[in-house]
Amino acid sequence: MARALCLAAAFSLSSCSLSPFGASPAPFPPLEPGKGRVVLYRSSSSGSPYTSEALLNGERVGRTDRRGVYVRDVAPGSYAVTTTMTARVVNFSVAAGERKYVRFSNAFFDARIYPELVEASKGESESASLERLDPPRTVPPKSP
Questions:
Q1: Taking the C-alpha atoms of 8, 12, 13 and 17 in order, what is their torsion angle to the nearest 10 degrees?
Q2: Whole-prediction pTM
Q3: CATH topology of domain 35-139
Q4: How many other CB atoms sit within 10 Å of the CB of residue 102?
C-alpha cells in the first residue's frame, strides 16, 4: 500500500513538469543592442472558456488559451497590447535595453481575457518557468 502511494505521488508530481520532457524552458536569447523586449504571458489557463488572440500594435502574437510566454524584441518606441475579446488596451513605451511584461488575466466571473502591465520583477518571476510558445521576433513601434 505504501509503495502504491509513493508511486502515485511520484506520477502526479512528474505530471506537473512545465515542459513535455521535464526540462526547464529554454532561456531567451540575449537582447540585441539598441532593442527592447516585450514579454507577453499567461500563467494560468483556467477561467475562460473562450480563445482570444494577443495583439501587439495590432499584429497577432498568439493565442491566450494556454499557459506560456511570447517574446518580441522591439525597437524603442510606443506599443499597445490588447486581445481580440476585450476593449482594454495597455499602452507603454519601451527604451533600448528595457523589458516590459504584460500578463493576460481574467476576473473570476468574466470570460474575457485582458492584458495588464506588471512590474518587471513580478513579470520576470511569473514568466520564468513558463513554456516559450514561439521564438522571439521583431515588431516595429506603433505610429504616433
A1: 150
A2: 0.75
A3: Immunoglobulin-like (2.60.40)
A4: 24
